[in-house]
Amino acid sequence: MRITDLRATTVTVPLEAPLRHSNGAHWGRFVRTIVEVDTDEGITGLGEMGGGGQGAALAFAGLRHYLLGHDPFALEELRFKIANPTASLYNNRTQLLAAIEFACLDIVGKALGTPVYNLLGGRVRDRVPFASYLFFRYADAASGIGEVRTPDQLVEHALALKAAHGFTTHKLKGGVYPPAYELECYRALAAALPGDRFRHDPNCALSVEDAIRFGRAIEDLDNDYYEDPTWGLSGMRRVREAVRIPLATNTVVVNPEQLATNLRDPAVDTILLDTTFWGGIRACVKAANVCETFQQSVAVHSSGELGIQLATMLHLGAVLPALTLAADAHYHHLTDDVLAGGKLAYAGGSIAVPDGPGLGVTLDRDRLERYAELYRELGDYPYDRDPGRPDWYPLVPNDRWADPHQADLDRANLDRANPT
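Structure (tokenized):
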């Protein structure tokens, strides 16, 4: 079997409301590039990639000549052909490789008539549990609803998600408001959901000193982990020495070299494996095997997925014996998907692992075209800018916090952030 073509289509799919984070916002929609890899046996594989609010179709077009004639079973050769670690000092293609690897694994599974999880050693669970992923949100410009800014709004939103999807673990994305205010919100969340588990992610925004203060102030809660409170392995190591909560990261341990450094001189307890950031599902499985050997915990990270990448997260979660923590997903913030049948369903706080051949998901051509047209209409947006504060940018560590007592600061910019 040989690859005959590579096609990339950028889409934008609306969110319920714009999601705020320490560097800016998801501006009321996700921009994702859907990859289709064709073969001479008539099998097409699916992949997906984000890009911080920007399309990546041209980047994939630049790799087409690398793939023509390539055997989709030859995944190690593909890795070095596209993302040789020394060449990638000049052309970082890790996330591009990931999307193409997804498609090749989809092809191989379809060719063999088996799910991707069987190519990775076989599943040890049929469903993958997920945490609610809670964000501070602007209100949707069209409906005027969806704002999450106050402790009461946060609690109301978390309770609604728990009722709808069955979540028993809750993650708050912080780094938006002053630490003392976010502490108030986080503790209100824990008080409203007794018996559930929690995690806070300031997105590297805090100084080491603020991170220690915040961490000590939540030590009495049932925390899974404290995610990326500050930037860098050295900063994380200082926080870890001072706070009695496991630390997690998806920013400073995202490749094998960083993993080795962390094992030699621990700064992080839980490695958040992202099928895009690590360069594919197989890279995550390799990292998880090392972590299992060293008794280092892992969880599945979310980088703003549609259903194709969600499927890769499900196949990854299915095969990891030591996965004791709920996965993350932005998925419940989406209003739709590009998959046939629409969004994959939560039940009891988990999603079933697809058991069809390959990734087990199918594109809905009408939805793909609808959201490709929406992308052509709306274009890109800057993930690292806040539409309500157009002249703002953060420092690291940050001290330029949003005002929690002020709602939409710039309605014209917020209107641009919403797709309707």
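The mean pLDDT is 95. Residues 94-112 form the longest helix (19 residues).
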